[in-house]
Amino acid sequence: MPMPLLPFIPLANLPQRLLPVVALMMPLAAAPDFVHEVVPILKQHCAECHTAQKKKGGLSMNTEESFRLGSSSGPVVNAAEPKKSLLLALIATDDEDLRMPPKGKGLDPGEIETLKAWVLAGAAWEPGFAFVQATYEPPLRPRTPVLPAAVDQRHNPIDRIIDHYLTEKNLPRPAPLDDPTFLRRVHLDLIGLLPTADEVRTFATDPAPDKRARLVDALLADQTAYAEHWLTFWNDLLRNDYAGTGYIDGGRKQISGWLYQALRDNMPYDQFVRALVAPTAANDGFANGIKWRGTVSAAQSTPLQYAQSVGQTFLGINLKCASCHDSFVDRWKLSEAYGLAAIYSDQPLEMYRCDKPTGKPAVPAWLFPELGTVDASLPKAGRLEQLAALITHPQNGRTPRAICNRLWHRLMGRGIVHPVDAMQSPPWNEDLLDQLAVHLVENRWDLKQTLRLICLSAAYQSTAESSAAPPQETRYVYRGPRPKRLTAEELTDAIWQLCGTAPTKFDAPVTRDPAGKPMVRAALLQSDLLMRTLGRPNREQIVSTRPLDLTTLEAMDLNNGAILDARLAEGARALLARAFATPADLASYVWRAALTREPTPEELALAVGLLGTGPDAATIQDFLWGVLMLPEFQIIR
């Protein structure tokens, strides 16, 4: 005769004297009802410290996924040996310093037994249940995606992922680039210089199928050109410059010599990061930040600047809001920003909220204790070494993702995560970002290998789309690379390169390789008014991306500014001195050198008509200005 069904009575509601009897009667496979029995206990005793934005001890219970990731001490549920689960030990211990919850008398025996039964039965979580419906939280640890099958012999992992993405979106592949456009794009992207007229002719007549790969390798192998191009990128990102702050002379310390050599040597990126996080006298200008005169807000003290700079540059996260109060825009807290700052502080650091002292000391702490912690008792040098190791920890996937996203943005015109300093935002393709990050680490943190992988992909070698999204789309949809403006330094170098009028002296305190007498680059010079007008920052703040839109001031300076006028006049005189055989030869040279292609018959006829039969310097200057104002010159397509 079957047993009658018993009414459902939550274990927590049973008299304490009956619990042992019930426990003996329950089959081992039985588990408490998660929603009706387990959730009320977790809500009452655990939610205050482990849900929403709070992750005490590194544990978030917002979702099943975050719960199973565990705490800074490891998983809270031991799937292999449930009886040894950390959760059970912490709720049952008599040690009040370890017991959870820390407030009050702890859980009563019935609640402990409910959670114990739940854990021993496998800690099943109701599908779809969340204490807090998750906003996007980027994964911390690395992840190797499963690559889709290659289509049409496109084996580059970037193409395998993007081809699959386009198929899912029912979008066409972008058309492939022709040779001249690829040649110009990859030269400017990798070394910041235009291909010479001779290089244009040579590449056009090379029939070898691997000529693009050989070109990429040759450009990356040019240590001087590579270093002096990427110096601009890193000077912006590390707010390094060759003068004062723009307001205070001596307000910052240069790291130019160290940075230049690191780029020439292609220092592995993990070493590069560790050297800046735990600096020496040769490169501590980044860590020290700006030393402002007079009274500044607490958030601009050197330790807080350090926390903001490290977070933004290497992790792509914004700690500026959290340096004043708990952030309104993401999950970072005042205590977390101050914890990172305290690692760098020479003295005990008091926390200030909105410039008012709280009376609470900042405790040196790393943002992701799941990976390890910083020993607050160590001297500053020891704390920094621990922090440097944690930022480049093999299980910290955030650091390689952040730099790969920056490189993708630099080459492709838009980040996989956008903006690049908002790495708390979801990427448009998580597999692509993870694949680039894993590839970087697998290649010993060699940034040139990441650049090579991108440049050899069919995705990079595709025609650029419009920079404006279709009006019906509220979220970004990838359709190919986006066009990019020449930077102030690239435009300046292009004029000097085209005309042979580069200066002979430079301002950056670096040691250049004299082999081949390389052209002095704009990146090695203090900025002038034209470069600042064209977007080169003073670098008092970290600059991850420069403006894309043309401003009124830029239009005025490009139209009739004194610096550009003088530069083009000098260039015109230099070209006149080269005594081209005919105006057509001069026009063809300028077209190849500036636009990486031959002029069309119509363009050549127009140029010759403008130059006349015997052009003087003023006429050549007007012709140069007309070519350099073309969007085809000023935009990398």
Features:
single chain; 637 residues; mainly alpha; two-stranded antiparallel ribbon; disordered N terminus
Record the SSE blueprint.
Layout: H1 19-25, H2 34-45, H3 47-50, H4 64-69, H5 86-92, H6 109-120, H7 157-168, H8 179-191, H9 197-205, H10 211-221, H11 223-237, H12 256-264, H13 269-277, H14 285-288, H15 302-315, H16 334-344, E1 350-353, E2 356-361, H17 380-391, H18 398-412, H19 430-442, H20 447-455, E3 484-485, H21 488-499, H22 529-533, H23 552-560, H24 562-577, H25 583-595, H26 601-611, H27 617-628, H28 631-634, E4 635-636
Antiparallel strand pairs: 1-2, 3-4
Helix pairs in contact: 2-6, 7-19, 8-10, 11-12, 13-17, 15-16, 18-19, 18-20, 21-24, 24-27, 25-26
Care to describe what's here?
The protein has about 625 residues and is mainly alpha-helical. Among the domains are: about 10-120, no CATH class; about 295-390, no CATH class; about 400-465 and about 475-485, no CATH class; about 490-510 and about 515-545 and about 550-635, no CATH class. Helices cover about 45% and strands about 0% of the residues. The protein is built from 28 helices and 4 strands. The protein has a two-stranded antiparallel sheet. A hairpin with a 2-residue loop joins strand 1 (about 350-355) and strand 2 (about 355-360). The longest helix has 16 residues, at about 560-575. It is elongated, with a radius of gyration of 30 Å. The chain starts with 18 loop residues before the first helix and ends with a strand. Residues about 1-10 and about 15-30 have low confidence and may be disordered.
